[in-house]
Amino acid sequence: MDRTGELPDPERPLSQAGLWVWVNVPAGTTTADFTVVTAADQVAEPAESVRLALTDDEGEPLPGRPVRTGTVTDTP
Questions:
Q1: DSSP letter at 28?
Q2: What is the distance between the alpha carbons of residues 16 and 73, in angstroms, rounded to a whole number?
Q3: pTM over 0.90
């Protein structure tokens, strides 16, 4: 609720969470850590992919800009 404005129940894939992140990246920075906080539940789920891309105001990826992917997994 604190990060997306939506209740964590019912459980749903990250792709249905409607989450957008605004980040300022300082000029000259070559690395950064990015943490995806999820709510723990009792449902065993397969790994999910997360895509990070620079977008325009309509959420469309900017041409020629890097896109990064990561994996979110259940933790023990």
A1: T
A2: 16
A3: no
